[in-house]
Amino acid sequence: MLAHEVRSLKPGDEKGFSARGRRDEIGYLAEKLGATIAELQSALAREFFRKHSR
Questions:
Q1: Exposed, middle or buried: residue 7 (CB in 10 Å: 0-12, 13-18, 19+)?
Q2: Dihedrals φ, ψ of 12, to 5°?
């Protein structure tokens, strides 16, 4: 399920993964992966804004 959700992400998606609530390694991975993707999207947005605001 988590792999399917990751593969179906589109640029700018901010959805959380359904496995985040699990109390096992998959839940931990879903939480960390979601946070990492959010940080990457934020960095990409900052870079895009910086390049296009000149």
A1: exposed
A2: 90, -10
Q: Give the whole-angstrom CA distance, residue 26 versus residue 2.
A: 8
CA–CA dist 38, 16 (Å, integer)? 10
Which DSSP string do the residues of 5-36 spell out, in sequence order?
Answer: HHHT--TT--PPPGGGG-SSHHHHHHHHHHHH
Q: Is 12 left (phi over 0), alpha (psi -120 to 50) or beta?
A: left
pTM: 0.78
- pLDDT digits 0-9 by tens, 26-36: 999 999 999 99
Residue 14 has pLDDT above 80, yes or no: no
